[in-house]
Design goal:
The chain is α/β, with parallel strands linked by helices and 100 residues long. 45% of the residues lie in helices and 36% in strands. Strands 1-2-3-4-5 form a five-stranded mixed sheet, sandwiched between helices.
Length: 100
């Protein structure tokens, strides 16, 4: 799992590359903590190259969403594939996030 982050004024775009499963969520925990500092703006999670998401990965998305809500920001999820869209639909995440 790899994260590529592009910071712009008031916005952070995070490109998620690979599989977001339990081992990789532990690997990127430090990056996620850094992202929480940006939660007062817009965090865009670009999933173009995300091939899989587990419950641990969903927890990361939810954690970022909660932090953004507290700080007055928002999280946008962009470019999810059909498999991940199905996971979002089954878990109710489609209703929690702005999906582009």
């Amino acid at each position: 799992m790899e994260l590529k982050t592009v910071k712009k004024p008031g916005e952070v775009i995070v490109h998620l590359i690979g599989r977001l499963d339990t081992p990789s969520s532990l690997e990127i925990a430090k990056d996620v903590e850094e992202l929480k500092k940006e939660a007062s703006g817009v965090i865009i999670l670009d999933c173009t190259e995300l091939s899989y998401i587990s419950s641990s990965g969903l927890r990361i998305f939810l954690t970022l969403r909660k932090e953004a809500a507290i700080m007055g920001g928002k999280v946008i999820v962009r470019n999810i594939c059909s498999e991940i869209r199905n996971v979002f639909m089954m878990t109710g995440f489609l209703n929690l996030f702005e999906i582009q």
